[in-house]
């Protein structure tokens, strides 16, 4: 006789609740995985560093606040419920006048500052437990 | 002399506006790509078919309404701003009592009905132009 271990029912993730568990800026938290991709959230305010991801596109969805993504050819401004996909190889810089919360999706292991490096480089962390 | 063609500034996608462009149920629209993944939206109401994706996880984020995802071990219920990742190989069935809008993310080419097939099988379409 074999014993079948039932698969656990997958967890529901509430994005706002995940964001409520931390307050620091420019520090991505991983909240889920899809195959070899990370679903992450971050709070940002001010301006990041210009950088490029040569090997991957980057998905950014605004949850609250207002996000500006600067490109060398012009800026885009995103309100909640809006997203942009930054194509691989395209230099960009994120900025937010007020505190803004975003959901990010990209392959696991992508460095937040891309090719730029510097003091804003931070490893992705797991979300703090509730 | 070489002519440099400026990269276009990436488009901002408003999820609600994308959803406003169609009204049929269980018919996914592709609204963006991230590497070899499709970002899709769909409107659903009623109950889908039980199925499994053997080769990929599936991300579902509720935009409006209320989504039930049934698993053999129990159901989860998601409100707007909540998501679930259905692990590969796990049988599931989506359902919604009222019309519900969701954002989906999975590799390009995934069949909506997975291993089940049947009359609900539909190719992903590009979103209708605005």
Automatic annotation (TrEMBL), chains A, B:
The cross-references to SUPFAM superfamilies, in alphabetical order and at most eight, read: RmlC-like cupins (SSF51182)
Which InterPro entries is this protein grouped with?
A: Cupin_2, PKS_Associated_Protein, RmlC-like_jellyroll, RmlC_Cupin_sf
Query: Where does the source fall among the domains of life?
Result: Bacteria
Taking every annotated instance into account, which residue ranges of this chain make up the domain Cupin type-2? 46-102
Q: Which Pfam families does this entry report, sorted A to Z?
A: Cupin_2
Please list which residues make up the signal peptide. Answer: none
> What is this protein's name?
Cupin domain-containing protein
Please report the organism this UniProt entry assigns to the protein.
Streptomyces fildesensis
